[in-house]
Amino acid sequence: MAAGQQWVLVEMVQAFYEAPAYHLILEGILILWIIRLLFSKTYKLQERSDLTEKEKEELIEEWQPEPLVPPVSKDHPSRNYDVVTGPPSHKIIVNGKECINFASFNFLGLLDSERVKLKALSSLKKYGVGTCGPRGFYGTFDVHLELEERLARFMGTEEAIIYSYGFATIASAIPAYSKRGDIIFVDEAACFSIQKGLQASRSFVKHFKHNDMEDLERLLKEQEIEDQKNPRKARVIRRFIVVEGLYINTADVCPLPDLVRLKYRYKVRIFLEESMSFGVLGEHGRGVTEHFGVNIDDIDLISANMENALASIGGFCCGRSFVIDHQRLSGQGYCFSASLPPMLASAAIEALNIMEEDPGIFRLLQDKCKHVHKALQGTPGLKLVGEPLAPALHLQLENSSGSRTEDLKLLRAIVDYSLDRQIALTLARYLDKEERFLPPPSIRVVVTVEQTQEEIQTAAQCIREAALNILKR
Amino acid sequence: MTESAGNKNEDCHAANGVKAGRNGMVKNHHHHHHCQKQEEVYHAACNGELYSRPFIESFEETPMLVAVLTYMGYGILTIFGYLRDFMREWKIEKCHIAREREEQKDFVPLYQDFEDFYTRNLYMRIRDSWNRPICSAPGATFDLIERSSNDYNWTFEYTGRVVKDVINLGSYNYLGFAENTGASATAAGEVTVKFGVGMASTRQEMGNLDRHEELENLVASFLGVESAMAFGMGFATNSMNIPALAGKGCLILSDELNHASLVLGARLSGSTIWVFKHNNMQSLEKLLREAIVHGQPRTRLTWKKILILVEGIYSMEGSIIRLPELIALKKKYKAYLYLDEAHSIGALGPCGRGVVEYFGLDSKDVDVMMGTFTKSFGAAGGYIAGRKDLIDYLRTHSHSAIYATSMSLPVVEQIITCMKCIMGKDGTTIGRSRIQRLAENTVYFRRRLREMGFIIYGNNDSPVVPMMLYMPAKIGAFGREMLKRNIGVVVVGFPATPIIESRARFCISAAHTKEMLDRALDVISEVGDLLQLKYSRHKVLPSLDRTVDEE
């Protein structure tokens, strides 16, 4: 070993002698510079040594923050709510007038089902109202477990998990799986709770045009090319596609079989949001997977809220245990929030019972949807947005006036006109500044099984009159 | 910001009668990372005119031996965890973990192996301490459904038996309104039959009922503010409304130990977030000065506004926010205060109006008062209260009002009835007596536990009582031993707490009778002796409350 070391030393000394003079001088200067830097004082970048205490006090005195909230003008369209007195059911009393309800998402008419109410009452008598704790700390009741089991059985999946708030369901589910660095492909028309989930997840989000499978495929191909450049990174980045079964903003169905095909081709997982299609589409109301005949195991996660067809409160996710069980420890809205009040869970179970006993109700709903769709076609000045089997349609202005506030005023006038004539409608509400792709202003028309033929005709007639009177000006 | 507290302390006594007169500057709050040999510190904060009552908080230092043993315990568990993973990998041990589908085996794995290490190997061993299902109202006692596991907690079976009348020390039932009989349950029952449970629409569309507006007016009068707004979920109240109040270019100063909903709300808002040390007003002041003097980090523009996020009672520590000092700071530096009273509303203050009343302050000084209805009112949901312009803005811009279904009516009815009861508006003194009983129960319970020799964290008046366990094995053992003796407790470990500071958390309720508390205390003492949990070394240093930030 000593011989080797000596040999290296000899080499070094030789190189030293052989080096040109300027090289040695340069190196010498650099070494001196390093020594100087090592021994000089360090300055913190933040510290401004030119501010005295007095100056700091002055700055503190002078600083004026903005007001906590900007003032809201008196005629802001959403400042004054329509007030409902009495139960929010088929015949609803809005602003003192009894109207026929075309605005609540009460698709299966279960909001005032006697059976559901009695079941909720007996649950209240047993458990009280609140659960006083999250699921982990004595907030798990047997009704929660029963509801989860029933939902899983109804949908044909292994497991289901319940949330106490519909909005929080998909907004907690997405960040539980997708973290910083992962990639999510999402439809442009995704609803606000999905957008919040995406924001909370801190992943890369790529939007594809609404229901445009070619655009999605283009994005997936681009990602594939990126992956080939960096295969090691590609092996750990998770990819997800987030779509809705029935879009709430555009009232049309996603092309699920194409999505499943893309899933296996590009190895992406699918998260399906079925708030509008659960209890609506499919022969037994199981949603868009039943509607298209897709195997439910092909969808990694189905999320829905129980506030539309099930006429209760809360939401659930279902899928394989491998996927769902993870949310029990990392779903924020599940772990850190109180569980669903047991009477609401009992109400949901009874609603499920009704759905299972009478599958004819879905056929009935779909017939009514088609009927309403036909009745509202050809309204002068308004165009109907949505598919014939969608239970929540939009009526948009055919010719926009150019300003959103003006459009909203016109549509509000139509709604007021209808309210006067005892048809309850509502404007579709959005948070203008926060929506990524803000949908055009529209009136929401909701179809429920409780609406009769005459009522539908009256409503269509009323809307036609309103449009004629208000839009022709 | 040091006041001349030295002079003022002549009048103040610490709780156990020791005069705080020595003029030494002692650290007032131990951070978990300090391993100095400082013992328990009692300090009575009578900070001149700011505090009208003694503020007694203590966080006893972890004994050195206990800390070492705890780390060793986790070390052994980790080694065994690796060993078991190895055995599962090589099929020597049966694997119960759910697996990916065959068809999706070549997809990118959904979970990193490392993320789940803690869950598979540590959490699984003591999983039966959590998610215990019950089948009665979560009152002072409940009925627990018995579970058993044949495969070390991977799967559970129900034995079919129900354990009756387990004393409930785990539910957040501070005023005892989680009952299935009584005025609130009757009122909620009537409403259920008349109105149903669902809403199927949002507040801005067709879901705004007159009952909602009545509830909001009642909340506003309860808190003594101009106006209030109610939401369907407490978690969502924070995560949906903080983004409406702060945005890009704003600064959020958030306490170290804030709840996940506050952290999520702050993150979703897009503002810059700076964290100050838990309940430490000097740390907060330092940040405030730096923020105003130096402005935004790189552009040096001034901040648009500064929002301070704090909680009334921190449920993992049992500490109460130092509100008088905080309000003084807030006024001096013109910041806005967002107070999350999830645990303190109904539980503190002579009339149950929360931490503001507890300190005798003016509720108009707090810009945004937030709270939940889940804990003291036995219902579900949250509220935000404050000035009228704030609430008007939230009515038009809150995510919840636009996109989330409005509150269910029986729940609204429950809250209205309970709130009227607390305020005395129903003509009885039930509310008043419950608040008093809660305060008495709290003081009694804490005093007895301390006398027994357990380490208790937090303020003397906080109904949340964290009792330290430290070692991982004791977490599971404590939960199980207590259940054997018919007491239901909540144990918390990592990641909700720092890794060596696992604890059991008791929530006192007004529904607990003295007999129940005595029985519970006897059992806790028994289990404490069995598991050697009486760590406290009870050394008291007379000290001042005011401290110097020793940065």
TrEMBL record, chain A:
<keyword id="KW-0746">Sphingolipid metabolism</keyword>
<dbReference type="InterPro" id="IPR015424">
    <property type="entry name" value="PyrdxlP-dep_Trfase"/>
</dbReference>
<dbReference type="GO" id="GO:0030170">
    <property type="term" value="F:pyridoxal phosphate binding"/>
</dbReference>
<keyword id="KW-0472">Membrane</keyword>
<dbReference type="GO" id="GO:0005783">
    <property type="term" value="C:endoplasmic reticulum"/>
</dbReference>
<keyword id="KW-0443">Lipid metabolism</keyword>
<comment type="pathway">
    <text>Lipid metabolism; sphingolipid metabolism.</text>
</comment>
<keyword id="KW-1133">Transmembrane helix</keyword>
<feature type="transmembrane region" description="Helical">
    <location>
        <begin position="20"/>
        <end position="39"/>
    </location>
</feature>
<protein>
    <recommendedName>
        <fullName>Serine palmitoyltransferase 1</fullName>
        <ecNumber>2.3.1.50</ecNumber>
    </recommendedName>
</protein>
<keyword id="KW-0663">Pyridoxal phosphate</keyword>
<keyword id="KW-0808">Transferase</keyword>
<keyword id="KW-0812">Transmembrane</keyword>
<keyword id="KW-0012">Acyltransferase</keyword>
<dbReference type="GO" id="GO:0004758">
    <property type="term" value="F:serine C-palmitoyltransferase activity"/>
</dbReference>
<dbReference type="InterPro" id="IPR004839">
    <property type="entry name" value="Aminotransferase_I/II_large"/>
</dbReference>
<dbReference type="Pfam" id="PF00155">
    <property type="entry name" value="Aminotran_1_2"/>
</dbReference>
<dbReference type="InterPro" id="IPR015422">
    <property type="entry name" value="PyrdxlP-dep_Trfase_small"/>
</dbReference>
<dbReference type="GO" id="GO:0046513">
    <property type="term" value="P:ceramide biosynthetic process"/>
</dbReference>
<dbReference type="InterPro" id="IPR050087">
    <property type="entry name" value="AON_synthase_class-II"/>
</dbReference>
<dbReference type="InterPro" id="IPR015421">
    <property type="entry name" value="PyrdxlP-dep_Trfase_major"/>
</dbReference>
<dbReference type="GO" id="GO:0016020">
    <property type="term" value="C:membrane"/>
</dbReference>
From TrEMBL, chain B:
<keyword id="KW-0472">Membrane</keyword>
<feature type="transmembrane region" description="Helical">
    <location>
        <begin position="64"/>
        <end position="83"/>
    </location>
</feature>
<dbReference type="InterPro" id="IPR004839">
    <property type="entry name" value="Aminotransferase_I/II_large"/>
</dbReference>
<comment type="pathway">
    <text>Sphingolipid metabolism.</text>
</comment>
<keyword id="KW-0663">Pyridoxal phosphate</keyword>
<dbReference type="GO" id="GO:0017059">
    <property type="term" value="C:serine palmitoyltransferase complex"/>
</dbReference>
<dbReference type="GO" id="GO:0046512">
    <property type="term" value="P:sphingosine biosynthetic process"/>
</dbReference>
<dbReference type="InterPro" id="IPR050087">
    <property type="entry name" value="AON_synthase_class-II"/>
</dbReference>
<dbReference type="GO" id="GO:0030170">
    <property type="term" value="F:pyridoxal phosphate binding"/>
</dbReference>
<feature type="domain" description="Aminotransferase class I/classII large">
    <location>
        <begin position="164"/>
        <end position="524"/>
    </location>
</feature>
<comment type="similarity">
    <text>Belongs to the class-II pyridoxal-phosphate-dependent aminotransferase family.</text>
</comment>
<dbReference type="GO" id="GO:0004758">
    <property type="term" value="F:serine C-palmitoyltransferase activity"/>
</dbReference>
<keyword id="KW-0746">Sphingolipid metabolism</keyword>
<dbReference type="InterPro" id="IPR015422">
    <property type="entry name" value="PyrdxlP-dep_Trfase_small"/>
</dbReference>
<keyword id="KW-0012">Acyltransferase</keyword>
<comment type="pathway">
    <text>Lipid metabolism; sphingolipid metabolism.</text>
</comment>
<dbReference type="Pfam" id="PF00155">
    <property type="entry name" value="Aminotran_1_2"/>
</dbReference>
<keyword id="KW-0808">Transferase</keyword>
<dbReference type="GO" id="GO:0005789">
    <property type="term" value="C:endoplasmic reticulum membrane"/>
</dbReference>
<keyword id="KW-0812">Transmembrane</keyword>
<protein>
    <recommendedName>
        <fullName>serine C-palmitoyltransferase</fullName>
        <ecNumber>2.3.1.50</ecNumber>
    </recommendedName>
</protein>
<keyword id="KW-1133">Transmembrane helix</keyword>
